[in-house]
Design a protein that fits this description.
Length: 124
């Protein structure tokens, strides 16, 4: 089982970037998927999550109106689209999958599989 996070990089303040999470070895249509981020010296926090069906989504207050999360179960992929990026969005972004039949997980402990992380850097 592997979650591959991709798409990070360097972007200027106000720019856009998307990061994708693609699974191999499991079918994401049984899993809620979350995107967490961790900045240097800070905890790993959930920023966005989607239920297995995509019907339920959650976004942290700090990214509402700027980030969106979408999934394509046929492609086994979940994408986090990040717009109007700010320097404080700089972090390593991790995707994670939680086996659950409804809703999303809000804590790291609820997730079963993790990707390796992809670095997003927003320059001021």
């Amino acid at each position: 089982v592997q979650l591959q996070a991709s798409g990070g990089g360097l972007v200027q303040t106000g720019g856009s970037l998307s990061v994708s999470c693609t699974a191999s070895g499991l079918s994401l249509d049984r899993y809620a998927v979350g995107w967490f981020r961790q900045a240097p010296g800070k905890s790993r926090d959930l920023v966005a999550a989607t239920s297995w069906s995509g019907v339920s989504t959650w976004l942290a207050d700090s990214v509402k109106d700027r980030f969106t999360i979408d999934r394509d179960n046929a492609k086994n992929t979940v994408t986090l689209q990040m717009n109007s990026l700010r320097p404080e969005d700089t972090a390593v972004y991790y995707c994670a999958a939680a086996f659950r039949d409804h809703g999303v997980g809000y804590t790291s402990e609820e997730y079963d599989y993790w990707g390796q992380g992809t670095l997003v850097t927003v320059s001021s």
